Amino acid sequence: MITAENLTKRYHHHIAVDDVSFTCEPGTVTGFLGPNGAGKSTTLRMLTGLTPPTAGRVAIDGRSYAELPNPGRLVGVMLDAAAQHPGRTGLETLRITARLLDLPKDRAAEMLERVGLGDVGKRRVGDYSLGMRQRLGIGSALIGDPAILVLDEPANGMDPEGIRWMRELLRDFASRGGTVVLSSHLLGEVQATVDRLVVIGSGRIVANGSLEELLAGGRTIVRGLDQVALARLLRGAGHQVDVNAHGVLSTDAGAEQIGRLAASSGQVLVELRDAGAAGLEELFFSLTSGTALDTQERAA
Amino acid sequence: MNPTAVTKPAVDTSTAAIADRTHTTADPRRTVMSTAVAVTTPAQMNRSPIRPQRLFTLLTVEFRKLIDTRSGKAVLGIGLAVPLAALIWMLIKGGADVSWRHYSQFAPALGMTIPLIGLFAMTAEWTQRTALTTFTLSPRRGRVLLMKFVASFVLAIAVLAAVVGLTLGATALGGLITGETPSYEFFAADVRALAIITALQVIMAAGFGALAAQTAVAVGAFLVAPTLWAVVGPLVFGDNAQWLDVFAAYDRLSSGTPLADLPQTLTAIAVWVVLPTTVGVVRSLHREVK
Questions:
Q1: B245-274 as b/e: b if 16+ CB within 10 A
Q2: Maximum Cα–Cα distance for chain B, whole Å?
Q3: How far apart are CA A111 and CA A117, in angstroms?
Q4: Distance, in angstroms, between A199 CA and closest chain B CA?
Q5: Can you say whether the dihedral through the CA atoms of A179, A185, A190, A191 is positive or negative?
Q6: A-chain residues near B36 (CB < 8 A)
Q7: ipTM score over 0.95, yes or no
Q8: pLDDT for the residue numbered B4
Q9: Which residue among A51, A85, A124 sits closest to B288, beta carbon to beta carbon?
Q10: Is A158 a residue whose pLDDT tops 70?
Q11: Distances (CA, A) of B37 to A88, A99, A212, B60
Q12: B210, containing H or E segment
């Protein structure tokens, strides 16, 4: 169980994280979603005691991270898969962690097998791809059999098979009562993995809730042959209508209401569906708009 | 496709409960149908109680980290191979001077190379960014840094001992080859001097490493700055420069009269060894890991 209360991190005049509060419960996967530079990594570093908060506090099972007797046995952490010594072999990297965590020697080789690196354990990490380093980082995080996992951008650099592997691993971890916190700047990536979402932009939480809550925006997407007339029709019936950049209408009217209205006025509909993630997507894109990443994220 | 039912274990979040919690064994069938499906994971094997990290564990880990990387092995290899090559060359060249003094003439150079072990121990964490892992696994950084100093110190002295052993062997071998009786005069005094210089240099190097955190900057500062002072200082400050001449201080400390000019010696050591080490450690304790 992780409890963050009013976490704030200020660098000179720049506020990286601004009054962020959330809890992560056992048995759940919490996703930190936000564009690059939103404050996700700073928040995760504050959770794990690497960055002292300017204000606010974090408790892990009621204690501060630094007070944990051997933190790796309770919290598995991977903040940057690239931050591994390139001159050390994968096996040796895990052996060192196993030793620090007071684990039997053979745990390192077992864990290497488990994360799919059994064949490359003798190779130097410098020769690993980013996806392999992610697997090694996950192995380091899991080796102490922790109850909590904190992962920063775990899917970064992984191929689709690796992403699926990670997703199953995290779901399984949570289903056995574990607590998972992960961050991502890609909505699609976390949507299939997380139960709860904390959307963060410019250091502040802009949305925080269960995936269902956030996805069920209660809005409907509608497209007809005559969008202008359709919008006028819906507004005339007292519904709120937004038109996005591509001319697609988003409204708070239900699908049946829209269908009846369209039928009664002879409008031809070509698309009618629940907005679902679209609402969240809009929110997320509004955070990233104006940055170069915007286009990339839309493409992804 | 038959989704496996998952029984959620009762979750108790207290640390004690986590130490001996049990997990339901997942069905080995690997399915990807829905998120409510258990994925194969090995049975949890780790049941040992959670104890605080012991200093000795940290020491062995830091010691191991000194020599398990390619660069670590390179420094160690050079530290041993260069003296070995020098000894072999001297043996091949021969000569009538079969003495410890003759065969150990390269030894002072060790005072520059072996201490780099301590420097790399400090900078690697920051340049390779392994500090992210090191300080999340051991949040009490002071203990980690202390053990880095101790491990570097132990390894440097071990390398020195090995080189001294090789030199003794070469001296004896030279005696056998030439038929002369080898002389071991000055052996004890020289070894004492080498040990003192190496010990101070390894702490100074690690201090510079902790201070600069960047390998290139730290190596440059460690190798160049004191030498530069030894050359330029006297030109500018005349005799007063010796107050900050750390090499002269080492020489006095390791000589037969270690207490000569003690104020100057202590000042030089304080400025070049104690100050960078203290500031470096304080900075490393608070440096933000990114």
A1: bbbbbbebbbeeeeeeeeebbebbbebbbe
A2: 88
A3: 9
A4: 21
A5: positive
A6: 175
A7: no
A8: 40
A9: A51
A10: yes
A11: 36, 33, 19, 41
A12: helix B187-212
Contacts with A127 (C-beta within 8 Å, 6 or more apart), sequence order: none
| φ/ψ (deg, to 5) at A263 | -60, -40
Minimal CA–CA distance to B66: which of B114, B12, B137?
B114
For β-strands A148-152 and A75-78, DSSP reports them as parallel
Residue B132 to residue A70, Cβ atoms within 8 A: no
- The C-alpha atoms of residue A84 and residue A79 are separated, in whole angstroms, by 11
pTM, two decimal places: 0.80
Instruction: Report the C-alpha gap between A108 and A86 in whole angstroms.
Output: 18
How far A175 CA lies from chain B's nearest CA (Å)? Answer: 6
Q: Maximum distance among all alpha carbons in chain A?
A: 75
- Sketch the domain layout of chain B as residue ranges: 1-51, 55-286
Match 């050390």 to its residue by tokens: A88
Each residue of B68-101: b (16+ CB within 10 Å) or e? bbebbeebbeebeeebeebbeebbeeeeeebbbe
Output the pLDDT for position A289.
Answer: 58
Contact at CB, B9 and A92, closer than 8 angstroms: no
Amino acid at A102: D
Residue ranges of domains in chain A, CATH in brackets: 2-215 (3.40.50.300), 220-275 (3.30.70)
What's the pLDDT tens digit per position in B39-70?
Answer: 333 334 445 678 999 999 999 999 999 999 88
Token readout for B74 is: 């390179």
